[in-house]
Amino acid sequence: MRTAEALRMAVEALRVNRLRSMLTMLGVIIGVLSVVILVAIGTGAKNAVEKEIAGLGSNIILVVPGQVGLGAAPTQSRLDLSDVAYVRRVVGDPSKVTVAVNSGEPVRVGRVEVFATLTGTDENMPHVFDRPLRRGRYLTETDVDTRRRVVILGSEVAAKLFGDVDPIGRQVTIAGVRFRVIGVYETVGSTFGVARDQEVHLPVTTAQRLIGLPRINGIAVGASGPDEIEPLRQRVVAALAARYPGETFSAVTQTQLLGTIGTVLGMLTGVLAAIAGISLLVGGVGVSNIMLVGVRERTKEIGLRKALGARGRDILGQFLIEAVLLTTIGGVIGILTGVGGALLIQAVSPVPASITWWSIVLAFGVSAAVGVFFGVAPARRAARLDPVVALRTD
Amino acid sequence: MPEATGTSVPAFEAIGLTRSYRLDGGVLVDALRGVSLRIGQGEFAAIVGPSGSGKSTLMHLLGCLDRPTSGTLRVNGVDVATLDDARLADLRNRTIGFVFQSFHLLARTSALDNVALPLVYRGVSRAGRRERAKAALEAVGLGHRLTHRPSQMSGGEQQRVAIARALVGDPRVLLADEPTGNLDTRNGEEVMGLLERLNEGGVAVVLVTHDADVAARARRQIHVRDGRIERDT
């Protein structure tokens, strides 16, 4: 028997029991819907984090003393500015190496005080990191060499201290020392909970004097391309290890960060999808159940079809197509409502949701597979009916 | 499928057919206890007997809906024991037309599509099915009822639709199980007249009935009792 004919019969059978078909589909719809929505949320979260990391700039290697990783003890930095100069020589392009000294200090203007993250850095920072200015200028070599008391404010710090007033050229007080504002950064959001708009940048030399220590917290190196990252990372780590025998240095790349976080969030997405998949399975049991009822109800029809020349295979195909039709229609409705739901969540809540084509293809494929899997038993029962017995049934 | 043709090969040839059932309680019932008979091409025969005589079992075997416990059955010269279920289904589809006491029409389906049903399993195109189904319905005088559903037709009309369905595939044999059992006298008469006309056209007709008047219309009566042929006249 042709598939088109079986399809026509299946559509007819579903239409005859419209309410029952819809209720059975509902189980599949809910399952597919939750798979699509949860995968969208999981993927959305992953994309959001990846965007944050990428927002730092491209091809960045962060060099820090000691081990980096969960559970690693914080290490007292022994790096200083001479090490930065050393790394610059190793890398070759001095403009692609910058430095960070971090501290937290209150920043004051008149009576307004804001707690900010102070980061001492240098003129090469904008060559390594992606940090656009809203107003003013970046640090210069002279600023660093002469320990100028100048600052660039994160957008949030600027707004809190100065409101609508243009801060350029104005004074702020940090730890009793007065600084002149030379720039304000664009809003960039936060990375790993570090609110970068609450940062205040100043020359690294000025920062060291303010803190009272000649140390630096880390060195950042910008690679010229994605392929350069790994060789450069190894070169920098090896050079530092040679300079300080017996000590460890770590260089973390964005790729590594992305890889680690991607794995964790990918697992989370998988777990969410699996939980949603269970409801799809329950929907499948419902399909199986209703197909068994259908076979029983239509025993006489099956007997007649067999008497008229239908082979077991024809009957099997007819019921299997009916079950698959039931689940795939449910699957399509589930996908449509799931996509709609994900878009709605995206629009009205802060939860990021991102629809991926593979989750839709997968949801459709799984719902079709559920139809086959849960349709086989009832369809085989139908195919095996003895026509004599089936025709006698009243 | 090898299919012998020509009038020399009988439509049915049964040798020592038996059929036993085991009931749910485990009791063995011998519905047929050794039936041998020949029904030639184009014959008009009635299988007659009281209920429980085994006549329905015999008809199921002749119609290839069931297989004998022992014995040999040849349909148009083909030994059914050599056919698997799929080939047996094909044999039913091409060789035998069924008419049932309770019509067995699909309730939500038009007369046209009901009649076309056997052709679905023969792979005939939709257009071809409709054309042949229309011709079959016209042949039973229902050319004006093509789109009606069974519930919109009288019992007599429904049985004529069922006969059209049995005819649509050009079978060699019509097997009719109490075809007038659910009909009043007038409609029953009409159906019997139709079967007689079809027989005159060359199709063998085998009736199963316990109605002596209906059986009397056939040229041959095969009386079945207790699973055996009692009399064949």
Structure description:
The complex is a heterodimer of chains A (394) and B (233). With 394 residues, chain A is of the alpha+beta class. Chain A folds into 2 domains: 3-52 and 259-392, no CATH class; 73-222, no CATH class. In chain A, 58% of the residues lie in helices and 18% in strands. Chain A has helices spanning 3-16, 18-54, 81-91, 125-128, 141-145, 155-162, 204-211, 226-243, 254-297, 299-307, 312-348, 357-383, 387-392; strands at 60-65, 97-109, 112-121, 133-136, 150-153, 171-174, 177-185, 190-191, 194-195, 199-203, 218-222, 249-253. In chain A, the strands form 2 sheets. In chain A, strands 2-3-10-5-7-6 form a 6-stranded mixed β-barrel. Chain A has a two-stranded antiparallel sheet with strand order 8-9. In chain A, a hairpin with a 2-residue loop joins strand 6 (171-174) and strand 7 (177-185). The longest helix of chain A is centred in the last third of the chain and has 44 residues, at 254-297. The two termini of chain A are 27 Å apart. The mean pLDDT of chain A is 87. In chain B, helix 3 (111-120) crosses helix 4 and helix 4 packs across helix 5. In chain B, the strands form 2 sheets. In chain B, strands 6-7-8-3-9-10 form a 6-stranded mixed beta sheet, with helices on both faces. Chain B has a 4-stranded antiparallel beta sheet with strand order 2-1-4-5, with helices on one face. Chain B starts with 11 loop residues before the first strand and ends with a strand. Chain B has one domain (42-66, 86-232): Rossmann fold. Chain B has helices at 55-62, 85-95, 111-120, 126-139, 155-167, 185-200, 212-216, and strands at residues 12-22, 28-39, 44-48, 70-75, 78-79, 96-99, 173-177, 204-209, 220-225, 228-232. The A-B interface holds A 1-2, 5, 12, 16, 300-301, 304-314, 386-388, 391 and B 60, 63, 65-66, 85-86, 89-90, 92-94, 98, 100, 104, 106, 108, 117-118, 120-123, 126, 165, 169.
